[in-house]
């Protein structure tokens, strides 16, 4: 006999309840309405179990940490930028995203992970800002853009997969080991060219077949390049505007209309 | 993996709470949320060693609240 929540239960019931705890923990992870990359927060990631066509859902730190960084202090400098002893400023390096077309180039910090440690990042939708230059009094577009946030989803797919790559990192001073990841990006498709019009990029969203290949396939460089070069079709995506202070909202994905905004072509 | 199924509302101490029914294998879990407050509470019906049903929180720790919420849910879903 065992006790669950103070009540005596059979072993089989105890095991069932413990299994439910695990299932709920995963669901709870997935139910987080929004993860903001610059928090360097934990996010749910599907990672292959070594040597098997099976995976685990695990939490990883979003923001790829290259193994050569010695400790957390070095990570903070790497992410925020710093002045060295000679007063020279070293700009911050953002590793939330890995540019898919470049990550395999020799010497790139992502290369080994792209070849050997690919993962799937679970998403229910993501956020991007559209830059719109209002027309000024002289009839010309103003230099300063007005930014409108969008929530982008895949209709009919409550959850979808983004391609990721991961890296285990150990703080050589404290011994802390964490798994970190970056989301692989690709060229924006027709819809995302209109929304993320400042950078013309989007996450590499994978179909179920591609996700399987990404996670379990013995992919060559050419295979990876082929997947990266084929962004998901616009027709499979949908987008709508949300409030500009969406980050502070309980449900950041609540639609919000901007009457002055020309709609994007879907 | 657990799948969300359907939802309904219950009133608890003058608060309207949303209950989502989640099926995980052969088990059913009730996910309770309050739109006005962050946080989520999961409960399920379990069987004790004497084969009597009781409500429990998932994970452990909130047995009394699980019993109160469970009673409201039973009222709502009884045929």
Secondary-structure element pattern of chain B, one letter each:
EEEEEH
Please estimate the helix content of chain A: 10-25%
**Which residues of chain A sit in consecutive blocks of at least 5 with pLDDT less than 50?**
none
Structurally, the number of domains of chain B stands at: 1
**Shape, per Cα inertia axes of chain A:** globular
Mean pLDDT, all residues of chain A: 88
**Given the helix and strand composition of chain B, which structural class is it?**
alpha+beta
So what's the CATH class of chain A? Answer: Alpha Beta
* Distance from first to last alpha carbon of chain A: 59 Å
Number of helices of chain B: 1
Number of strands of chain B: 5
Q: Roughly how much helix do the residues of chain B carry, as a percent range?
A: 10-25%
DSSP helical segment count of chain A: 6
Identify the strand order in the major beta sheet of chain A.
3-4-12-11-8
Which stretches of chain B of 5+ consecutive residues score pLDDT under 50? Answer: none
Q: Report on the biggest sheet of chain B.
A: 5 strands, antiparallel
Largest sheet of chain A: 5 strands, mixed, barrel
Largest interface: A-B, 22 and 28 residues
Summarize the structure.
With 266 residues, chain A is an alpha+beta fold.
What does this structure look like?
The complex is a heterodimer of chains A (266) and B (79). By secondary structure, chain A is of the alpha+beta class. Chain A has helices spanning 11-30, 72-80, 111-116, 190-195, 208-216, 221-228, and strands spanning 2-4, 7-9, 42-48, 55-62, 82-83, 89-90, 97-99, 118-123, 126-132, 146-153, 160-170, 177-187, 201-203, 205-206, 238-241. Chain A has one domain: hypothetical protein yedk fold (Alpha-Beta Complex). In chain A, a hairpin with a 2-residue loop joins strand 1 and strand 2. Chain A starts with a strand and ends in a 25-residue tail after the last strand. Chain B is α+β, with helices and mostly antiparallel strands. Chain B is built from one helix and five strands, in the order E-E-E-E-E-H. The termini of chain B are far apart. The model of chain B has no long low-confidence stretch (mean pLDDT 85). The interface between A and B is medium-sized, with 22 and 28 residues.
